[in-house]
């Protein structure tokens, strides 16, 4: 979509990289963790999205001549620029699978590369993963509420610029059935879907004629917007006339769309009119500033709505607007590294690590992931990362490693799965998460802990810095 180069970054990455280069540190090994601190939307889980997009971009990322010329004008050193000219990421990445159900604090992805490589990719990694994960999480919250109803993404027009491209993609990962976003349909082979705008009906002198023309030229999956003048007195009766005319030609009107007023009331009244006309197959779509709260209310009112079109509130990730995902150095030049903070919650967890998901006897998630040193297995006990006296025995539970190699020597290890495969994986994993973590209000808190060895290593490092 966008022509990414390595100047899609923050200046400080280049300033730091130049120092590493000029001081002979450029090839020192470094390990960075990507994780977030707070689950968005006061929810009980998040959905990891954007990984394959990031890896595909990373594989081809370099500095163009235009980049080099520009950096020259910004007073970067000639020999550093000569080094950047041939620069390519050749590191290793281990990560959770895209679509995985993820939680705060535990690493979702780990980059192992030279310090320059790892630093130069930080901004683009955070930019792509934070946003797509936020929107996939929002979409999955909406999906949990809408259950089997059809969900369509209508957000592109109100998205933050080209972010709409990534938002529509992430919405599919989170469980949306289709999108109005045509370029996302083209690029990711996902169903595109759409109705008609008020302007189309307004441009005609009468609504019936507008409906007729539209149905004539696009009879397949035709949806008529019925609220331009008067939903129950004009829109629905005109849609019924056109539906009957379509029947005479062996066609079927797919749906009507409501876009204003009390959606439950208009859906109910419209359903009656359609059913009384023998058109019970015609579906009812609704839109207008929908989000998981409005949809929850409509579901509770048993509104006979079959299709929800969700735009603004989905693609801008309202109300959270951003995932607080961070990228922190945990190991470099042969030593574990730590950032110490007043609060243990903001003190980083050093070392190369692995994350283990525990499963109960039925094969469901057990509500606890444990972070270990990378060479540990079969963790017996996990310790609270911020509250030193809390621990949990987990030895009897089946444990599955979440961080798996996805890139080596700068090359992706597997072809990118299709968006629908990622969505299917996400759906299957979410089904393993017990209901109490998916509860709409006050979900149960999924536990994240550290193995004894990791806890000890972290404490040692904290103490060595204190001394
Ligand atoms: N039955 C309902 N239950 C809960 N929320 C609803 C219901 N019907 C509509 N809403 C939601 O209420 C919000 C505001 O609707 P409101 O009726 O004020 O807007 P509107 O219909 O666009 O106004 P206007 O008729 O001026 O166009 C929207 O987010 C809409 O989705
Ligand atoms: O409310 P959202 O969740 O963002 O959903 C998308 C909205 O965008 C359209 O309105 P718009 O006024 O832009 O165009 P229209 O004239 O076709 O209604 C559509 O009719 C929805 O109301
Ligand atoms: O197809 C639609 O009905 C649609 C598309 C984008 C935004 N609002 C509605």
In the CATH hierarchy, what is the class of the largest domain? Alpha Beta
Q: How many individual helices? A: 17
**Shape assignment:** globular
- According to CATH, the homologous superfamily of the largest domain is nicotinate phosphoribosyltransferase
Could you tell me how far the N terminus lies from the C terminus, measured between alpha carbons in angstroms? 51 Å
Total domain count: 2
Sheet of most strands: 7 strands, antiparallel
Tell me which oligomeric state these chains represent. Answer: single chain
Strand order of the largest sheet: 13-12-1-5-3-19-20
- Total E-strand runs: 21
- Helix % is 25-40%
Catalytic activity: 5-phospho-alpha-D-ribose 1-diphosphate + nicotinate + ATP + H2O = nicotinate beta-D-ribonucleotide + ADP + phosphate + diphosphate
GO molecular function, one term: nicotinate phosphoribosyltransferase activity
Function: Catalyzes the first step in the biosynthesis of NAD from nicotinic acid, the ATP-dependent synthesis of beta-nicotinate D-ribonucleotide from nicotinate and 5-phospho-D-ribose 1-phosphate.
Pathway: Cofactor biosynthesis; NAD(+) biosynthesis; nicotinate D-ribonucleotide from nicotinate: step 1/1
